[in-house]
Amino acid sequence: MAHKIGIIGFGKIAQDQHLPNIKANPDFELVAVASQRGLKPDEAKHAFQDYREMLKEVPEIEAVAICTPPQVRYQIAREALLAGRSVLLEKPPAATLSELYDLKLVADKVGRTVFTTWHAQYNKAVHEAKKALAGWEIKRLLVTWKEDVRHWHPGQEWIWQAGGFGVFDPGINALSIVTCIMPEPVFIQKADLQFPANRDAPIAANIQFSAAHGAADLQAVFDWRQTGPQTWDIEVETVQGLALALREGGTKLEIGGKLMVDEPSEEYAGIYQSFDTLLNERRSDVDDAPFRLVADAFMIGRRVQVEAFED
């Protein structure tokens, strides 16, 4: 029997990814949507402006996908869990690590599932890169994640507010790939965070990582000011001479300069396949590794003020 699911927060990511992938997966049935703007897709039987009303009025809902801005995600997720619903969390999963930790405790206490979804990890090229790097010692890592915020987040003021993550909203996708494919943990050694004079979240970041094994050149560059072609690349070299690159957000894999994987993204299809398994097995999957790197960057990062930014 299909899992009856609701969506809370019906913005761009919910419309572009969650809605079509729920519709395409026979293991799920969309029964309700809660949207402050009062949006109602044809696929949903019920629509509400208040998520609390949805949880109360549609008891058959087994799980909810929470696609709100991160600043309010914790309270919604906690109430959903206490109301007996499992929760799928868009990235980033909460506003703070403490909030995410508490959600895991609550889910365990009430016997429900909480699932952190790092969509970039679901690309085949990422899985193949992880296998190729297993057991090797890394000499060089360069993450280049540059995109146009005006294209991807037009008019979304919440991303510029404190707790909105700024350039780490897309940058955390890169970090989710790094934490997945690296054969050993990496840590934030240094971070320069560039804040527009009129914003409370960074528009760019330069990061230097360290690794437990010792000296290595491990860096990341995030920037929201790139126009034209967008850049989502991760390049890795091992001490043993293996050269590997993930291109276009992790959908293409090159090894030794040869294209090994080039497949269209099926990230959210993979997310909902995994969510089905977790619900059936009544267990949670809370991966906080990418989130910890973001938190560490903000904790030890140097704030650099740059020119004001307007949409």
From TrEMBL:
Record's protein name: Galactose 1-dehydrogenase
MF GO annotations: nucleotide binding
Stored InterPro entries: Gfo/Idh/MocA-like_OxRdtase_N (IPR000683), Gfo/Idh/MocA_oxidrdct_glycsds (IPR050463), NAD(P)-bd_dom_sf (IPR036291)
Entries under Gene3D superfamilies matching the protein: Dihydrodipicolinate Reductase, domain 2, NAD(P)-binding Rossmann-like Domain
Chain ranges of the Gfo/Idh/MocA-like oxidoreductase N-terminal domain: 4-115
